[in-house]
Amino acid sequence: MSLFSKRTATSPVTSYLSAFSKNDPHAVDDESSTPASSLSSSTTSDSEDTVIYDDDIDNADGLALPPRPPNSSEVFSTVHTEFGHCSNPKYRYLSQHTSGTSIPGHDDQNPEPPYYVLLSTYISYLLLICLGHIRDFVGKRMRPAAYRHLMPSDGYAPLNSDFDSFYTRRLKTRMDECFGQPVTGVAGRTIQILDRISPDFNHNQILTGSRTRALNISSYNYLGFAQAHGGCADAVETCIREHGVSTCGSRLEGGSSNLHVLAEALVAKFMGMEDALISSMGFATNSTFIPALVGKGCLVISDELNHASIRFGVRLSGAQVRMFKHNDMDALEALLREVISQGQPKTHRPWRKILVIVEGLYSMEGTLVNLPAIIELKKKYKFYIWVDEAHSIGALGPHGRGVTDYFNIPPRSVDILMGTFTKSFGSAGGYLAGNKDLIDSLRIRGHSGAYAEAMTPPVLTQVVASMASIMGIATPTMTRFDSSSTLQPSEAYHHPGPAPMSTLPTWLCLPPHLADGSEGTSRLRRIAFNSRYLHQGLIKLGFITYGHPASPIVPLLIFNPGKMNMFHRLMKDRQTPIVVVVVAYPATPLVSGRVRFCVSAAHTKEDIDTILRACDEIGDVLDIRHGVRPRWTIDQVCARALDLVQLS
Question: Matching SUPFAM superfamilies, A to Z (predicted)?
């Protein structure tokens, strides 16, 4: 059954038996999986996900399934589900760095395109700029009413100068179709697009009222917890009944609720740190707590590709800032030697504090931080480390604990671990984890603690439920690495194992497949397989990709600005519509525009096949295959997926 195919008439008995088998979670073959969505069409239905027995059975001459509520396993078996079902154990991989192997550098992971590609890209921008300025010059004289916002009027200066707004007006606006695609519903494995048209070259967008269901490869739903069905969603509903939706219920002194305190304890346990604090906004976690840690007389050494929230927080702090080349450990060590030997400017006094800030996984490049090398430099030069794990927490490591887990590094060798709940956990907000004295100090000194609103109970419940699903919940008889735990003795990790009952609300009740951690482990291994398969598959097809094979973010380089919009449109207009994210300047360098695929555990192997086949066809149309490696055919890539994953 396809989501997009029209409903055909069937006999009552056939309809009943077909629906019953599809709703039976135990009737799934070991080799079966959710097929990829197919047959593009539009729908105006208000339902986000159609459950199979809603219409097919109620109209079948009175025959109906036994009256029981749907569970997540049943929803998994539908084509258009939020989380694709894949019971084949071969499509799993352990996300872990192999000890003794080198970590590829940024330059090794970023091959250069042919010169004609760069030349044509520069020429494209040159033509757009020249034509844009000519249009501005002529338009101000021929159509002054259309340029009123850029010209002085009634004694008032223009709000924006024509030069400052030139890129937005003449380049970005023409490509807004691929930058701002409106969607609705849950950002799961599939998502609904709001269809629209523009009669004036994207200056105005008009919604047609129809919707198109598409395969979603554009959301940070790394572990697939952004679901409206299942154990976590049920836990959130229970929380709403218990606590409501506001932050004012069950409050303690200091502005925190009991649930807030429990969530912070669980985060600390999950991260393997002494203590943790939770902030209601991921961006604010960096921008408001960095000034609480460093100030005048301190030095911040920042990777050149760090997120805007880090840059903003450092500017607010008043500390001196030095940047080093992205992920270049030789450049970092040379900079450390210089700043330590020279001290503060003018006075040359020793720095009060040196803080190195890096990201675990860089969202635009898909590269991993070389954390083992930074730890060695820390031992040598005695500085503090702040690791932003917004994209790596939950998505990397055999236990989902991020880059420290992936590299098998004790988490307490890092001073501050920062992360967000908006990606892998399907929630909102951010956290800081470290030693208790440091976290207690940040609670008082950080601006978020005093001025920001606390997280609401439903949002906290989503964090607790999803995190407990990854860890598993300890039973009274379970030891730290007991055989009943999801962590086998051979995989024993220095982090605490299952989540203790003391860190969970008494009313929280997860289904068995979440409470024992088995589904969490499966999700971690599914995203590891999907990430490597897509990354290596694109390379074998001849595309230039950036990033580490373990990264769930897979950038595919397009370069030419004219091809960005076409790639987005061709993917969306396929028989199986695919939603992608196109990224361009200023988020990336001017000539390295790219498509950024965001892989999820919710995707099946067939979904990745569909994406690779689409890229294979569109790559020839747009001439974006510029890789120099030996190429495979698309059939070879799909058939040898397991070999590709092992190669990474």
Answer: PLP-dependent transferases
Instruction: Give me the CATH number covering residue 205.
Output: 3.90.1150.10
Domain assignment of residue 354, given as a range: 231-472
CA distances from 400 to 309, 393, 395, 396, 512 (A): 24, 6, 6, 5, 20
Helices (H), 415-557: 436-445, 447-451, 457-471, 512-515, 518-540
Global pTM value: 0.86
Quick one: 288 and 340 in the same domain? yes
69 vs 627: CA distance, rounded Å: 51
Question: DSSP string covering 580-639, please?
Answer: -EEE-TTSS-TT-EEEEEE--TT--HHHHHHHHHHHHHHHHHHT-----SPP--HHHHHH
Cβ burial of 187 (10 Å; 0-12, 13-18, 19+) is: buried
What tokens were used for 428? 């909102």
Q: Are residues 156 and 290 in the same domain?
A: no
Same domain, 251 and 291: yes
DSSP run (H or E) holding 206: strand 206-216
How is the beta sheet containing 593-598 ordered, strand by strand?
A: 553-559, 593-598, 581-583
Are 575 and 463 in the same domain?
A: no
Q: Dihedral of CA 265/269/275/277: which sign?
A: negative
Omega prior to 111 cis, within 30 of 0: no
Q: Count Cα atoms within 13 angstroms, Cβ side, for 502.
A: 3
Shared domain for 451 and 311, answered yes or no, is yes
Residue with tokens 């008494």: 506
Task: Name the strand (E) or helix (H) holding 430.
Answer: strand 430-434
State pLDDT tens for residues 446-502: 988 778 888 999 999 999 999 999 999 987 655 443 433 343 433 334 556 788 888
Number of domains in the chain: 2
Q: pLDDT by residue (tens digit) across 194-251?
A: 999 988 888 888 999 999 999 999 999 999 999 888 899 999 999 998 887 765 444 4
Going by the DSSP 8-state scheme, the letter that residue 69 receives in this structure is: -
User: Quick one: tokens of 81?
Assistant: 């589900």
Query: Would you tell me the crossing angle of helices 561-572 and 115-142 to the nearest 10 degrees?
Result: 90
Assess whether 249 and 207 both reside in one domain: no
Q: How far apart are CA 137 and CA 143, in angstroms?
A: 10
Report the largest interatomic distance among the alpha carbons of the chain, rounded to a whole angstrom: 89
For residue 327, CA distances in Å to 73, 565, 587 come to: 42, 31, 18
